[in-house]
UniProtKB/TrEMBL annotation:
<keyword id="KW-0560">Oxidoreductase</keyword>
<dbReference type="InterPro" id="IPR046826">
    <property type="entry name" value="PDH_N"/>
</dbReference>
<dbReference type="GO" id="GO:0070403">
    <property type="term" value="F:NAD+ binding"/>
</dbReference>
<dbReference type="GO" id="GO:0004665">
    <property type="term" value="F:prephenate dehydrogenase (NADP+) activity"/>
</dbReference>
<dbReference type="Pfam" id="PF02153">
    <property type="entry name" value="PDH_N"/>
</dbReference>
<dbReference type="InterPro" id="IPR003099">
    <property type="entry name" value="Prephen_DH"/>
</dbReference>
<dbReference type="GO" id="GO:0008977">
    <property type="term" value="F:prephenate dehydrogenase (NAD+) activity"/>
</dbReference>
<dbReference type="Pfam" id="PF20463">
    <property type="entry name" value="PDH_C"/>
</dbReference>
<dbReference type="InterPro" id="IPR050812">
    <property type="entry name" value="Preph/Arog_dehydrog"/>
</dbReference>
<dbReference type="InterPro" id="IPR036291">
    <property type="entry name" value="NAD(P)-bd_dom_sf"/>
</dbReference>
<feature type="domain" description="Prephenate/arogenate dehydrogenase">
    <location>
        <begin position="26"/>
        <end position="304"/>
    </location>
</feature>
<comment type="similarity">
    <text>Belongs to the prephenate/arogenate dehydrogenase family.</text>
</comment>
<dbReference type="GO" id="GO:0006571">
    <property type="term" value="P:tyrosine biosynthetic process"/>
</dbReference>
<dbReference type="InterPro" id="IPR046825">
    <property type="entry name" value="PDH_C"/>
</dbReference>
<protein>
    <submittedName>
        <fullName>Prephenate dehydrogenase</fullName>
    </submittedName>
</protein>
<dbReference type="InterPro" id="IPR008927">
    <property type="entry name" value="6-PGluconate_DH-like_C_sf"/>
</dbReference>
<feature type="region of interest" description="Disordered">
    <location>
        <begin position="1"/>
        <end position="23"/>
    </location>
</feature>
Length: 388
């Protein structure tokens, strides 16, 4: 597969399906053709950019090629203009250093989830930092490998770009252009700020999810039958790859530790409060402060979750939520959404929950405050059962 030439070169249907001119200049060499690398390749190929693939696993690189993420290198190839390293974080520094040395005119970026450790490895190796600009797309999946790759993985997502004082403006521009070509929004941060941010918004949530999910290993199957959306929400990312997450947590240990220690302190407080409740001889004997500690923990969570940006990055709003029973049959959800539209009410958020072993789902429809009662009446009038 070769890149188109002539007037159509670099102009194609991009990851978002729009006719987009590619600003990224090829050939682009993708090193590590798993989920992230193959997704970059698929998106660039959709823009008509020439992508050359490399991975130490022969099967992985051939699979990425067969999925359309790029082609294998040829001896007659020109050197790459841009190298994207999408290898595990613990080897990323070494791989970036090797790519900078092998291609002295190329800009090199990486997509590792941790930036400080990569930069430290490159500095220690004496690498040419003028051509290196780290990055981290805030997009991904709990699945790994090229079969999980998608060309639209980055569309609409923030993508952190981590230049250093040594980075040349041309290198920063090349990486920013890659990011926007792939439909993402560049966010410029320095490595330390990035690492501290992802420790709180990504790495601690992964640990918390894994720890909660681990409690389910010995749970009674009858208990698991009671599982609702809350458990699914909290444990979804617990399906992440252990090898990748070990590498991420180890590489960002310095930033993850304070967040983990603070969480441990909160947990210790909760354990102590619950012990006091259990040891009390009656409701009036519960020591002062114990119940307050429980309430304070939940209230602190309320305050934290309210700070997560809502729709379009704006402030999170309190919506009215109408929950509707949806028969588990083809076309029923589409019919429900059609009826919401026919009521002239905009749907702000939608979540679906499957009642275990029952042929119905629960669709929770969030609408602007004040519209819930109207929507409930409209849907009931159209024959839907509203659960609350
Ligand atoms: N998975 C996510 O959600 C996500 C999100 C953002 C960033 N990242 C980062 O992207 C990078 C890749 O993650 P992924 O999810 O694509 O993992 P993946 O396991 O799907 O792919 C990693 C690939 O790197 C290859 N590899 C291993 N050692 C290598 C080496 N020395 N040189 C070159 N390639 C090597 C592997 O063979 C594999 O194909 C990681 O640094 C990760 O931190 C992942």
């Amino acid at each position: 597969m070769t890149a188109p030439s002539g007037p159509e070169a670099g102009r194609a249907h991009g990851p978002s399906g729009l006719q987009t001119p590619a600003g990224t200049v090829g050939p682009v060499r993708v090193v590590g053709t798993g989920l992230l690398g193959a997704s970059v390749g698929l998106a660039l190929r959709a823009l008509g950019v020439d992508v050359v693939l490399h991975d130490p696993s022969r099967v992985t690189v051939l699979l990425a090629r067969d999925l359309g993420a790029g082609r294998l290198p040829e001896p007659s190839d020109p050197p790459p203009a841009l190298v994207v390293v999408a290898a595990p974080p613990d080897v990323t520094g070494d791989v970036v250093a090797a790519e900078l040395a092998a291609y002295p005119d190329a800009v090199v970026t990486d997509v590792a989830s941790v930036k400080g450790a990569v930069l430290a490895a490159l500095t220690a190796a004496g690498a040419d930092l003028t051509r290196y600009v780290g990055s981290h797309p805030m997009a991904g999946s709990e699945r790994s490998g090229p079969t999980a790759a998608r060309p639209d993985l980055f569309v609409g997502r923030p993508w952190v770009v981590v230049g250093t004082e040594a980075s040349s403006p041309e290198a920063v521009l090349a990486v920013r252009t890659l990011v926007t070509d792939l439909g993402a929004t560049p966010v410029m941060l320095d490595a330390r700020v990035h690492d501290e941010a992802v420790a709180v918004v990504s790495h601690l949530p992964q640990v918390a999810s894994s720890l909660v999910a681990a409690r389910l290993r010995d749970a009674d199957p009858a208990a698991l039958d009671l599982a609702g959306q809350g458990l699914r929400d909290v444990t979804r990312i617990a399906a992440g790859d252990p090898a990748l997450w070990t590498s991420i947590l180890a590489a960002n240990a310095r930033a993850v530790l304070p967040a983990l220690r603070a969480t441990r302190d909160d947990l210790d407080g909760l354990v102590q409060a619950l012990e006091q409740v259990v040891e009390a001889t009656g409701p009036h004997a519960v020591p002062g402060g114990a119940l307050g500690t429980l309430a304070a923990a939940v209230a602190a969570g309320n305050a934290g979750v309210a700070r997560i940006p809502g729709k379009h990055g704006g402030a999170r709003r309190a919506y009215d939520v109408v929950t509707v029973l949806v028969p588990d049959q083809p076309g029923e959800l589409a019919r429900l959404l059609g009826d919401v539209g026919a009521a002239g009410i905009n749907l702000e958020e939608l979540s679906l929950e499957h009642a275990p072993r029952q042929p119905v789902g629960l669709a929770s429809i969030a609408v602007l405050p004040g519209l819930g009662t109207t929507l409930e009446a409209e849907l009931t009038g159209r024959g839907w059962t509203v659960a609350g």
